[in-house]
Amino acid sequence: MARVARDSRKNLTGNPVPDDISLAIIEQLQQDGRRSYAAIAKAVGLSEAAVRQRVQKLIDQGVMQIVAVTDPLTVGFLRQAMVGITVDGDVEPVADALAAIPEVDYVVVTAGSFDLLVEIVCEDDSHLLEMISKRIRTLPGVRSTESFVYLKLRKQTYAWGTRS
To answer: Please, what is the end-to-end C-alpha distance for the chain in angstroms?
Structure first.
Protein backbone atom coordinates (compact mmCIF):
# COMPACT_ATOMS: atom_id res chain seq x y z
CA MET A 1 0.00 0.00 0.00
CA ALA A 2 1.42 3.39 -0.99
CA ARG A 3 1.87 6.05 1.67
CA VAL A 4 0.24 9.40 0.97
CA ALA A 5 2.10 12.54 2.00
CA ARG A 6 0.17 14.69 4.47
CA ASP A 7 0.36 17.70 2.13
CA SER A 8 -1.45 15.83 -0.67
CA ARG A 9 -4.32 14.50 1.46
CA LYS A 10 -7.68 16.24 1.52
CA ASN A 11 -10.01 16.68 4.48
CA LEU A 12 -13.80 16.19 4.35
CA THR A 13 -14.31 19.70 2.95
CA GLY A 14 -11.92 19.01 0.05
CA ASN A 15 -9.24 21.32 1.43
CA PRO A 16 -5.68 20.08 1.96
CA VAL A 17 -4.91 18.62 5.39
CA PRO A 18 -2.93 21.28 7.30
CA ASP A 19 0.85 21.01 7.07
CA ASP A 20 3.12 20.66 10.10
CA ILE A 21 3.53 24.43 10.54
CA SER A 22 -0.24 25.02 10.50
CA LEU A 23 -0.65 22.18 13.00
CA ALA A 24 1.98 23.84 15.21
CA ILE A 25 0.02 27.11 15.02
CA ILE A 26 -3.16 25.26 15.98
CA GLU A 27 -1.36 23.64 18.91
CA GLN A 28 -0.16 27.05 20.11
CA LEU A 29 -3.74 28.37 20.03
CA GLN A 30 -5.07 25.24 21.77
CA GLN A 31 -2.69 25.93 24.64
CA ASP A 32 -3.77 29.60 24.82
CA GLY A 33 -6.41 30.96 22.45
CA ARG A 34 -5.32 34.52 23.29
CA ARG A 35 -1.65 33.96 22.44
CA SER A 36 -0.37 36.79 20.25
CA TYR A 37 0.57 36.31 16.62
CA ALA A 38 4.07 37.51 17.53
CA ALA A 39 4.48 34.80 20.19
CA ILE A 40 3.14 32.14 17.83
CA ALA A 41 5.44 33.36 15.06
CA LYS A 42 8.46 33.02 17.34
CA ALA A 43 7.42 29.50 18.39
CA VAL A 44 6.84 28.19 14.84
CA GLY A 45 9.54 30.13 12.97
CA LEU A 46 7.38 32.34 10.75
CA SER A 47 6.74 36.06 10.53
CA GLU A 48 3.81 37.54 12.44
CA ALA A 49 2.08 38.38 9.13
CA ALA A 50 2.49 34.81 7.88
CA VAL A 51 0.96 33.44 11.09
CA ARG A 52 -1.95 35.89 10.83
CA GLN A 53 -2.59 34.76 7.22
CA ARG A 54 -2.40 31.07 8.13
CA VAL A 55 -4.77 31.50 11.09
CA GLN A 56 -7.29 33.30 8.89
CA LYS A 57 -7.00 30.59 6.22
CA LEU A 58 -7.55 27.84 8.83
CA ILE A 59 -10.65 29.66 10.07
CA ASP A 60 -11.96 30.29 6.53
CA GLN A 61 -11.49 26.61 5.61
CA GLY A 62 -13.39 25.49 8.72
CA VAL A 63 -10.33 23.71 10.13
CA MET A 64 -10.63 25.59 13.43
CA GLN A 65 -12.62 28.14 15.36
CA ILE A 66 -11.39 30.49 18.03
CA VAL A 67 -14.00 30.57 20.78
CA ALA A 68 -14.35 31.06 24.52
CA VAL A 69 -15.04 27.69 26.14
CA THR A 70 -16.99 27.96 29.37
CA ASP A 71 -17.75 25.56 32.17
CA PRO A 72 -21.56 25.31 31.96
CA LEU A 73 -21.86 25.01 35.74
CA THR A 74 -20.23 28.39 36.28
CA VAL A 75 -22.59 30.21 33.89
CA GLY A 76 -25.87 28.83 35.25
CA PHE A 77 -26.35 25.56 33.38
CA LEU A 78 -26.53 22.97 36.14
CA ARG A 79 -27.45 19.89 34.10
CA GLN A 80 -25.70 18.28 31.15
CA ALA A 81 -26.58 14.99 29.53
CA MET A 82 -25.64 12.83 26.60
CA VAL A 83 -28.72 11.43 24.89
CA GLY A 84 -28.55 8.32 22.73
CA ILE A 85 -31.25 8.42 20.05
CA THR A 86 -32.63 5.62 17.88
CA VAL A 87 -34.24 6.77 14.65
CA ASP A 88 -36.76 5.21 12.27
CA GLY A 89 -35.81 5.94 8.68
CA ASP A 90 -33.31 8.57 7.50
CA VAL A 91 -31.04 9.84 10.27
CA GLU A 92 -29.99 13.07 8.54
CA PRO A 93 -33.24 15.08 8.95
CA VAL A 94 -33.37 14.17 12.64
CA ALA A 95 -29.71 15.17 13.07
CA ASP A 96 -30.39 18.49 11.32
CA ALA A 97 -33.44 19.19 13.50
CA LEU A 98 -31.45 18.43 16.66
CA ALA A 99 -28.57 20.64 15.52
CA ALA A 100 -31.01 23.56 15.26
CA ILE A 101 -31.96 23.35 18.96
CA PRO A 102 -29.97 25.94 20.97
CA GLU A 103 -29.49 23.68 24.01
CA VAL A 104 -27.89 21.00 21.84
CA ASP A 105 -24.16 21.58 21.55
CA TYR A 106 -23.04 18.30 19.99
CA VAL A 107 -24.69 16.00 17.44
CA VAL A 108 -22.94 12.96 16.05
CA VAL A 109 -24.21 10.23 13.72
CA THR A 110 -23.00 6.90 15.08
CA ALA A 111 -22.88 3.21 14.35
CA GLY A 112 -23.89 0.89 17.16
CA SER A 113 -26.69 0.87 19.70
CA PHE A 114 -27.77 4.44 18.85
CA ASP A 115 -28.13 6.26 15.56
CA LEU A 116 -27.28 9.62 17.12
CA LEU A 117 -25.53 10.91 20.21
CA VAL A 118 -26.54 14.38 21.35
CA GLU A 119 -25.11 16.46 24.17
CA ILE A 120 -27.50 18.91 25.77
CA VAL A 121 -26.83 21.64 28.31
CA CYS A 122 -29.76 22.68 30.51
CA GLU A 123 -30.45 25.04 33.37
CA ASP A 124 -31.80 22.31 35.67
CA ASP A 125 -33.59 18.95 35.76
CA SER A 126 -36.94 20.49 34.72
CA HIS A 127 -35.31 21.97 31.67
CA LEU A 128 -33.68 18.61 30.88
CA LEU A 129 -37.04 16.83 31.18
CA GLU A 130 -38.67 19.38 28.88
CA MET A 131 -35.87 19.00 26.33
CA ILE A 132 -36.12 15.22 26.23
CA SER A 133 -39.91 14.87 26.47
CA LYS A 134 -41.11 17.82 24.43
CA ARG A 135 -38.30 18.74 22.07
CA ILE A 136 -36.37 15.56 21.26
CA ARG A 137 -38.86 12.68 21.57
CA THR A 138 -41.48 14.60 19.58
CA LEU A 139 -39.27 15.00 16.52
CA PRO A 140 -40.49 13.01 13.52
CA GLY A 141 -38.38 9.87 13.15
CA VAL A 142 -37.26 9.61 16.78
CA ARG A 143 -38.10 6.09 17.98
CA SER A 144 -36.43 6.09 21.40
CA THR A 145 -33.97 7.90 23.63
CA GLU A 146 -31.68 6.95 26.47
CA SER A 147 -30.24 9.67 28.67
CA PHE A 148 -26.87 9.70 30.39
CA VAL A 149 -26.88 12.50 32.97
CA TYR A 150 -23.48 13.98 33.80
CA LEU A 151 -22.69 13.81 37.50
CA LYS A 152 -19.17 15.21 37.35
CA LEU A 153 -16.90 16.31 34.54
CA ARG A 154 -13.42 14.86 35.04
CA LYS A 155 -11.77 15.90 31.79
CA GLN A 156 -12.61 18.18 28.90
CA THR A 157 -9.96 19.01 26.35
CA TYR A 158 -9.82 20.36 22.84
CA ALA A 159 -6.14 19.65 22.21
CA TRP A 160 -6.62 16.79 19.76
CA GLY A 161 -5.86 16.95 16.10
CA THR A 162 -2.30 18.24 16.10
CA ARG A 163 -0.21 15.22 16.97
CA SER A 164 1.24 13.05 14.22
So the answer is: 19
CB-CB neighbours of 33 under 10 Å: 14
Q: In the chain, what's the furthest Cα-to-Cα distance?
A: 55
Q: What letter would DSSP give residue 73?
A: G
Could you report the per-residue pLDDT of 11-61, keeping only the tens digit for each? 666 767 888 999 999 999 988 889 999 999 999 999 999 999 999 999 998
| DSSP per residue, 38-65 | HHHHHHHTS-HHHHHHHHHHHHHTTS--
- 85-126 pLDDT tens trace: 999 999 999 999 999 999 999 999 999 999 999 999 999 999
